[in-house]
Amino acid sequence: MVENKLSAEAVHKTIKAAFESFECKDNNTVDVRDISTIIYSLGCFPTQADIHNFIAEVEEDQTGFVHIDKFLPTMTTVLLENKYPPIPEDRVLQAFEVLDREKKGYLESEELTKYLTQEGEVFSPSEMDEMLLAFADPEKNHIYYQDFIHQLTIDPDK
Amino acid sequence: MGCGVTKSDQFHKHTGKAIRAAVLIQRWYRQYVARTEMRRRYTWHIFQSIEYSGEQAQIKLYNFLGYLMDNFTPASTERNLISHIFRENEVCLDAEWERYFCYKNIEVPEIYSGPHLTFPLTVDQAVGLVEAFRNKKQLHSRYVLQLLLETWKRFRLLPNINRIATCQSKEVCICGDLHGQLEDLLLIFYKNGMPSSENPYLFNGDFVDRGKDSIEILIILFAFLLVYPGDVFLNRGNHEDHIVNLRYGFTKEVLTKYKMYGKRILKLLQKIFSWLPLATVIDQKVVVLHGGISDSTDLNLLARVDRHNYVSALRPPKRKTTSNSIRSVDSDLEEDFWASNRLIQRRSSLTYPKTFGSRDSFHNRSLQDFSDRIKVDPADELEMCRRKTTPFSPGVNRSKKESTPPGSTDSVSSDPTKDEWRQILDLLWSDPMTTDGCVPNEVRGGGCYWGPDVTEEFLNRHNLQLLIRSHECKQEGYEFCHNRKVLTLFSASNYYDVGSNRGAYVKLGPDLVPYVVQYQASSMTRELTVRQSVGRTERSALKVLREQLFSHKSDLVCAFKQYDTENTGLVSVNDWASAVESVMFLGLPWRMLRSQLVTCKLNDGMIDYNEWFNELAIKGPNTDHIDQSLLETLYRHRATLETIFRIVDTDNSGFITIEDFRQTWKLLSVYLKMEITDEAISDLAVTIDSNHDGSIDIDEFMEAFRLTDKKSRLERGRSMFMGTATDLTKLEGDPNI
């Protein structure tokens, strides 16, 4: 996570480091499809709409690439203004509780799939499969969401 | 649609809230996935950086040894230590070969439970070999030698460039690097069937090194090639090279598995590797080769070379010369040269300027680093001066058409054999890049980086439409680049570590549209979730990285002190990152990695670097009295050290004498340009030779200094690469491991 009150220089360095991980060998551009990953990995939680707007601002005229020169200033603003703030754990917990009508403490894979692939900013089938494969109890087909949240918020970057 | 009226009622009642909840979860989860992806990327980057810098180190070492060979008199000790690896095959005539590699007097004992082979081989026998190896059997050396002889005879008939035609419905299956990972080959056969006349295969090099079953893979591939000569094709990779094999595990694997005849097997393989075809063209439209191309790659030229002259792609070709010739000869070191007691000088190596010049100078660049350090006999020095006619001029044109520039009789590029050599080197070692152009591949130390414009021009010139190559590990097992005109194919899954990557193969039919199939060998472990596999790989990568950092302690401390002008022992995170990169040159995102590499707490945002080194310190038994910087050197150059040991161990016994050990150290200290006193070396030697019998067990030595993990003795190839030492921060009690 990026600490607040960093100098612009430090922010630039962080952004560049993230950018470089996706760079195609030294030409200072990344594939536009990696932009959302880069933004997320910098500790931001944009919505899909946010991402689309961001890309519209930085993409090089439909080449499918984004150059560091455009990415850096836009991203710096995002970080310094905390535009896509993180979602605290308890809000995620509440979200799961909303979906868990019966307060079972878990959601069935089927239910969760229905919500996440049909509502909101829908998951693709492969995104859904991956989540279930990684986190659902394979025998009961449940996701115990409290555990789930806990596992995912052990932040290795801290 | 819904399963119950009740459920869907409830759903609709709270739709607004539910949607918001779903959005939150989706957003939050995606962020997690992205962070994981980032970690996977830099983990990958760590392994790859270290892998390539290891390759570079090997080339440098090799060049250094070659330089020594050229510049020491025949009688010197140092030369004797290493001369045998430079000896070309002494036997040349077929009759002599058959005699030398005769398997006929090797008896197969009754108790041998592995497969028996009779020649000519049949399909059943080839399939039988696969089964036997799946069941962990080993093929007897008699049969190995027999198989290799037959293989060699067949290879000699093959052209430099294989030509395949996919007629009617035959699809050819193309596989990339296997690197001794038998499991992956078995998986490919399982998914795609064994080779046959209806099921042709092409294997694109790097069958050996790193994995633990390289010889078994070779046996299988050769067996099927013999049984289906028109349907199984092999290309040479950069690891089909005995020099590379010394470092990356194949040599050791063979010598371990075949204690009696290992050396003979390796010698025969040396020859066979040099006879492997260099490339394959399918339907005259698709070219398949191991590494890549350069802006001067010419398939017509390559089709004409005597490929078997290039036993190792790392050596310029051998050429003979008369004693009066001004043009000095290359380092071909047959016995008779030494008998006449002449000094042979590698061309131009002493006179190369230090600047990073054109590609010509690149390959020899590391040599001139040592010229001021090698102790040379004064008489020889005089001889060398006399032989030096004109200084070599840098920046020589790469083009092979260039005529000799005036005043330079030693011009490199006007020599056709040297040009051929470079073409082969490029073919086996190059990597693609995204920008246009063609530049030396300094990361690996051989070949070049080539851009999309070079691909375009090359394909057009040869009337081709696609280039398939391997050589680079890819997370998905394959990757297209250069507008989908280049396809990288890698068939060793879990290459860096369990879960690191998939393997892939390609099916190519008459439509010449590549159809990719991915897989991942999973018997190494149960199926890991995304998160688990990233975590695991990441931990390995970080361990390797910490070892690298520790072994550069002195340089790092120097670098830190430059930022820490007031000697507080502290540096800021930014300065820490800059300093580390300036020493390590791995191009890694150090700031991102910092929290994983520096676990001691930050002192007000500053890092206490002395405390950090304590954290990283490697401890071993009885090493307290050994000079710390010596230990550090040992650690940093352990792969090189082990390679030199293996070279020095001429009878492949696994033991070297104390005297040889001392000589090894001397070699290493010259190579590293370090002063290591005789006393320090003696201390070290005595510590290691714990039973005082005058000889040192190489494996024990490497383990004693935590240079390798004991349990990975059998997986030497991998451990040499990974440098898997046990937990660096723990001190193990037992000195007699």
TrEMBL record, chain A:
Q: Which domain of life is it from?
A: Eukaryota
Q: Which GO terms describe its molecular function?
A: calcium ion binding
- InterPro entries (alphabetical): EF-hand-dom_pair (IPR011992), EF_hand_dom (IPR002048)
| Gene3D superfamilies in alphabetical order | EF-hand
Q: Name one Pfam family in it.
A: EF-hand_7
Q: SUPFAM superfamilies of this UniProt entry?
A: EF-hand
Q: PROSITE patterns this protein is in? A: EF_HAND_2 (PS50222)
Q: Where is the EF-hand domain?
A: 87-122
Entry protein name: Dynein regulatory complex protein 8
UniProtKB/TrEMBL annotation, chain B:
| UniProt GO BP | detection of stimulus involved in sensory perception; negative regulation of MAPK cascade
Q: Where is the EF-hand domain?
A: 551-586, 636-671, 676-711
One Pfam assignment: Metallophos
Can the keyword Manganese be found in this entry's annotation? yes
The superkingdom of the source organism is Eukaryota
Please give the cofactor(s) recorded in the UniProt entry for this protein. Answer: Mg(2+); Mn(2+)
UniProt keywords (A-Z) are:
Calcium, Hydrolase, Magnesium, Manganese, Metal-binding, Protein phosphatase, Repeat
Q: Where is the composition biased (Polar residues)?
A: 405-415
Q: Which SUPFAM superfamilies match?
A: EF-hand (SSF47473), Metallo-dependent phosphatases (SSF56300)
As recorded in UniProt, its EC number(s) are 3.1.3.16
The kind of enzyme this is, by top-level EC class, is: hydrolase
Where does the record place the region Disordered?
385-417
Q: Which reaction does it catalyse?
A: O-phospho-L-seryl-[protein] + H2O = L-seryl-[protein] + phosphate; O-phospho-L-threonyl-[protein] + H2O = L-threonyl-[protein] + phosphate
A GO molecular function annotation here is: iron ion binding
Give the family this protein belongs to, as stated in its UniProt record: Belongs to the PPP phosphatase family.
Name assigned to this protein: Serine/threonine-protein phosphatase with EF-hands
Origin species: Xyrichtys novacula (Pearly razorfish)
